[in-house]
Amino acid sequence: MNFTIKNAVIAVTDGYRTIDVQVVNGIITAIDSNLDLIGTRINGENKLLLSGFFNAHTHSSEKWQRGVIPPLPLELWLAHLYEFAPLDTEQVYISALGTAVETLLSGGTSVVDHLVLIPGKELETIATAVRAYREIGIRAFVAPLIQDESLSAGIPSGESSQIHEPYFRSTAETLVIIEEAVRLFHRPDEGINILVAPTGIQLCSDALFTGCVELSNRYNLCRHSHLLETKAQEKLAQEKYGCTAVEHLQRIGYLSDRTSLAHCVWLTDSDINILAETQATVVHNPLSNLRLGSGIAPILKYRQAGVNVTFGCDGASSNDSQDLLEAIKIGSILHNVTELDYQYWITPREAVEMASLGGAKGLNMDDQLGSLTVGKQADLVLYDLTNLSLLPRTDPIGLLVLGRPTNAVDSAWVRGKQIIADGKVTTINVDELRQELFNRSEWGKTHRSKSVGEMEVHYRQVMGL
Ligand SMILES: [Zn+2]
Q1: Hey, which of 121, 211, 273, 296 has its CA 20 to 30 A from 439?
Q2: pLDDT tens string 384-424
Q3: Burial of 405 (0-12, 13-18, 19+ CB in 10 A)
Q4: What is the CA(315)–ligand 1 centre distance, in A?
Q5: How far is the CA of 105 from the centre of ligand 1 (A)?
Q6: Which CATH superfamily is domain 53-363 in?
Q7: Does residue 58 contact residue 313 with C-beta atoms inside 8 Å?
Q8: How far is the CA of 142 from the centre of ligand 1 (A)?
Q9: Which CATH superfamily is domain 3-50+372-440 in?
């Protein structure tokens, strides 16, 4: 797939320049003025060209519950989420496509799907999501969500002695499934990656984490997990390990330069130093953290300590959208209220770099992705600067991040293949997708969760409410 983008606007140190970009076999081969036309001519006039962003943490199948779950903290919200009828693979397929479309139309060319698995159909679930991502062409990092403890174990015991049901699948069986998924689906050269992804310390044993470390080392896989999303998890870590979750994860060898950790709201200063030392990446999910009342992650402290930070939308029932530009906006300006010294605030250009290069670093691909650099892969996005939401002509990146860009993505490529042209997805039929989402759902189908009621009494007690 060869093409030349002519006269696109790109950011340079002291402003913007109009420039041409050549792409040959999916790789950026030249960035300069007045380049010869190679392959298809793409008109970049009045369009901003950026490297594609990463939606670095989401759960695609939560799309089926978006807008439904009432305002609740994570632990009770999860109980609510789990009560919905188990999904079928057709729903997995549709929600993966939907998540990809929303990510692409808000500037993302990569998605990390911390994929909830249908019990008993684990490999089928993974196969289905992989099929959807291959069809639409987004770069996918499928991170099958695994745990080996039952849901009630995720709440601290406090004074009470809690007995938890054993999880329905053994740790060893779970690891076999992941290894099989790697064998069947891990194809980095084709834009499909499998990650090891225990859900988090709250529902996973050390055996599961260390089993994942082994798989990660054996197959060169990135590692993903939730980390200290809530105050309850901070308490739980102390009960479980007698130290912080970060100290424990470091001890068992889970942290590394290819480990990305979603949320990271409740870390101590010494935890932050551990992340910096181990070069792990923080995935900031500001909207989910607000929606579930989890807290404000200390993102400015991470940046000052040299920790790599990128952005995620998180699943669509805790956000409840997959608009990456929205996550980038809130995720950068939110911290202006936590730090008086404005010199530490995140600028729009820094936010864009966090969303692109930061995402690539977190997935150990910054030598191949994340910036407009000759030799890197062509995961590119063109934004239409004549779009009403990006006018008048001021600072394109300033307005892209701080404004409310609406239908501003004109074109997108992944590995040099065009997926969006003239603002429309070209690889799948989005009208059919809308119809499927419509047909397979109904308005106002809510119910009072039974398990929330059961868990709530204990939750309120341990949290001192
Ligand atoms: Zn999540």
Answers
A1: 121
A2: 999 999 999 999 999 999 999 999 999 999 999 999 999 99
A3: buried
A4: 6
A5: 21
A6: Metal-dependent hydrolases (3.20.20.140)
A7: yes
A8: 13
A9: Urease, subunit C, domain 1 (2.30.40.10)
